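Lab meeting notes turned into a lecture example. A postdoc, R.K., suggested we walk through two folding results consecutively so the class can see how the record format repeats. The first protein's sequence and structure tokens come next.
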Amino acid sequence: MRNRVAILLVGGALAWSLGNDVFAEPNASSVPAKQAMTEAGRPLQPVVEVEEELYSYKPANNGAGPMWCFGNTCIVRTGDKVFASGIRTLPDYVPLNNVRWMLYQNAGGKWTQVADAGDGHEREPCPIVCFSDGRVFLSTNPSSCKPDQRDGPAQPQVLEFRADDPSARPRTLLPKWRRDLAFHGHTYRSFAADGEKHEMVLFYSIAYDKTYWTFCDSKGQWSSRGEIDFPWGKEYDKPQPVRVCYPTVQLKDRAVYFCGVSDVVEPYQAWREYKKQLTGAEWDYDFRRLFFTWSDDITTGKFHPWVEVASRDKTAGWLFPCDLWVGPNKAVHILWSERAIDTRLREKFFPDAKQSVALNYAVIRDGKVQLRKAVHQWDEGEKKEKPGRGRFHVTPDGRLLVLYYVSGTSAAGTRVSENRLVEIHGDGALGEPVKVPLKVPMESFFTAGVRGGSAPSMTIDMLGESKGTMRYCRIKLQ
């Protein structure tokens, strides 16, 4: 039977249990984790060292964009060099597969385009990862369709670059899969690396019943591969697999951790019919249930039963994964965005429900949720900024931070649009949020994090979208 752990609502508020020393090893010393975390220095302050435009783009109108691979990253740091991938829209190609990837390097404070797809084309932006030895890998999904064709067969590839000579012709790696698969423009793929161990894992979700994965070991061999059946939606009007998409994935010491959101056509007939009256569309996808699974050792091919971390299925709400980080004690830290209800349906189906918008945080160990709380929450009728998306950042001494966006009207009545940084202490308590003084705040962004192979750092490398441009920011923590 599948395990299911759900976040509960008590009196309209998020209920959570706080355990002590959630970062600490079981049976560790009696020194409180919070004290160990903070004795090294005062609260960290963000100093913006660089803020600039990296490239501009034109909409491809293909259902994707430069931030489409949300759970991955398009920016990594290896040593003193930073790499970022981007996309360029092809005016002579019809959607869907009408963009080409580009690869940029920042060395010595200057950005340079060092590679591109040549005459290749595909639909989605290309996530990247890196190893501690200076290798950089780009996941690409080139399509074989012609310029006037909407879609066609694709061939997943991983291109290997070297930080010391990124303009050299990359080595092409062809991932191996458990079976022959009909790849095409939609991949919903996840790309993660263990930067220190020089290993990586690639997921493709091209079906509604399962996701496929392949693992590349430190010898450069795709030595393990398999598939994960999606959880079963027995609650739906017509029971069906719950496709899980947009996951955040981490590979650490050959263990793999996977957290994604439900992505199925509206499963409740009454809601679907009412939505059709409002929109005229035959379909509408739900993003309402957050699922987590993990493998203790990916080479075994075995994954634990799914855990349902959070759900807004009763009020047609909305959830979306933001980030995931695995601590040294194997505690899994999860960050996600959450909205309580679909206000279009409230009057007819749940008139007493109240709206809320939250950036939520949970800690899972051994498949059980040990802590959950809101990093920032807005409740209907409240004078307070609404939170947007966030990302974790880990420092070399193990401090865990959340970088996130807020907007709206403050309690003082002023308009707010800014990024903030807050520390999560060892006992789960939140520090005081600090404004990141960006000239152009970023609502949607990637960072160079450990899931992409980058090392913990006192520098935050940030790549985000703003009005048709992709911008880079370098933030120093002091």
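The second example is placed directly after the first for contrast:
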Amino acid sequence: MRGRARQWVRGAVAVALMASIGQLTTAGTAHADAPPATTVTIDAAHPFGALPSDFVGLSFEMRELGIGSFDARAGNLVPLMRTLGRGNIRISGNTLDRDTLWVPAGQQPPNPLPDWVQDVVTPNDIARLDGLLRATHWRAEVGINMGHWDATLAADEARTLFATLGRRLLGAECGNEPNAWVGKGFRPPGFGYPQYKPEWEACADLVGSNRIAGPDTSSPTSTGPWVTSFAQDEHARINMVTAHSYSIPGSADATRLLSPQTAASQITNLTPQLNAANAQNLPIRIDETNSAANGGIVGVSDSYASALWAMDYSLLMAQAGFDGLNFHGGLGVCGAPLYNGKFQIYTPICAANTADEQAKVYVAMPEYYGMLMASRMGSGQFLPVTLATDRNVTAYAVRGEEGRISIALIEKDDTAAGSVHIGLNVGVDAEHARVVHLTGPSLTSTQGVAIQGATVDRSGHLPQRPAERVRVHDGTLSLDLAAGSAVVITLGEDDD
């Protein structure tokens, strides 16, 4: 029998990293006459960390705000967001600093527009966003242009954001990816954190509130020093640290996306940022993230593999200590060219065609289903999990309000592989467990992804199907988990 990897999750970042790397030791070959066995043990007596209620998030370009995408009165965006639960929306991206002009109330855009302007945002757009936030009970971060800096316009936008959105504005963001400004032509060669610091502080002075998030840097492997210095210098002025991360290169496939190596690198790359926030007792969001940058990878970012990845990635990073993830995307036609010539592959939500785009009617892509499964874990505290397996399986447990325990099991092998027999010691007394399944035809399928056999309908709702009921015997249960599938197991609910 091949050696079985053991994952010990104890809450500290270093241990979370060791748990991910521990998955890499699953080498060897099982006996032909012995099916793979997986055991999962939940330690219900030692909760740690937190799974916040708004850890699910979406991220969009600033241009979506200017073209009127966020309209609670049209289409199905409100039910799609509400189906995900209470969440967080971040609006910024490359278009913020590159081509978005703020125009104050009562003013007309200059005619002609400056050469660099492609998008215009006004107080009416902020009011429209406010309607969306009120309807969904989400909160937001919204960017202020620093690539083309104008102190008067920045101050007016900041006043409008706070006056209109109120507490629904979690934080303003001064600029996007400042570590990349030189490459984008916004600053001269030699511009680095020492030059950025006074510029950011000038923006913060105009915002005039400590509800500011930053520094919103890209490329986590090279920007740890930026985040560390920023958190140390500005911790009294900000309420959240933000950073970006994309998990795989553009040449990767679905197997790479779901590999234990990718899971380990996700933790490794962002640990410096997490440590920097923790050192200042600040929350931290990965407020722009997805599978691969520049629009994603056809057959990977838009496939069933992205659903399994999004579920696992969300819980992995929340367990490590991050307060939320915002999956980047756009509300245009699925797979259509983006503003930068790339294609809209990785987005969780998009329109099936041009007519639906104009009607603001969107479809849920595979990644959305993974986010939705992660949100089914609810909020609460993580519980330590001991996992022994010879397959690409991960496990998480959360104890929520009123003692309810939710357990996520994610099997990330190819769907053609055999099912995995799982023995689960839940660590509590219970008679039954409810099991909800995430399934798809194959890792590369772009259609047919379902939760309990149901798909999100045109109205933006997921039809409710009864959960599978599994009997618990003396604190243990067993089930067969299909390869390339996931479940959320819930204990402590009524047995109606």
